[in-house]
Amino acid sequence: MKVPNQQHRPFTGANMTPMIDVVFLLIIFFLVSSHLARQESRLPVELPVAESHAPLDLEPVSMTVTINQDQQILIGGTPIAIEALRPLLLEIRNRDGSAASLRVRTDAVVPYQVVEPVLHAAAIAGVLDIKLAVKDPR
């Protein structure tokens, strides 16, 4: 009986199934991560009005802190104490270095006395690029 010779078999092409699986997993990963990034800016906050402001910066920030009308500090929709915010800001500063940035979204009725500890914690942690979210009066 003759044993088939593998050397003379024609090449049928590479199996693309594993690569397609990886591509689909990457697409799902980026869809989920972009959804989580957009979720922070959808928290219901009536931003303060500012007559003069820089145009919206589309560059991503390291962290977004939201202060709602109940004067709760929120990160990713989860309430957090100011004491727990400081280690998070230090971690961001260590991770991103001088490129670390912070976006602060506050409700218009929140007094500055609630916002100031967040800004102070960021300054102590070395996060100096702070963007305050406002809305245009128009």
UniProtKB/TrEMBL annotation:
This is Biopolymer transporter ExbD. The lineage of its organism: Bacteria, Pseudomonadati, Planctomycetota, Planctomycetia, Pirellulales. It is a single-pass membrane protein; Single-pass type II membrane protein. PANTHER family: BIOPOLYMER TRANSPORT PROTEIN EXBD-RELATED, EXBD MEMBRANE COMPONENT OF PMF-DRIVEN MACROMOLECULE IMPORT SYSTEM. Keywords: Cell membrane, Membrane, Protein transport, Transmembrane, Transmembrane helix, Transport. It is found in: Cell membrane. InterPro entries: ExbD (IPR003400). It comes from Roseiconus lacunae. Belongs to the ExbD/TolR family. Pfam families: ExbD. The chain crosses the membrane at residues 12-32.
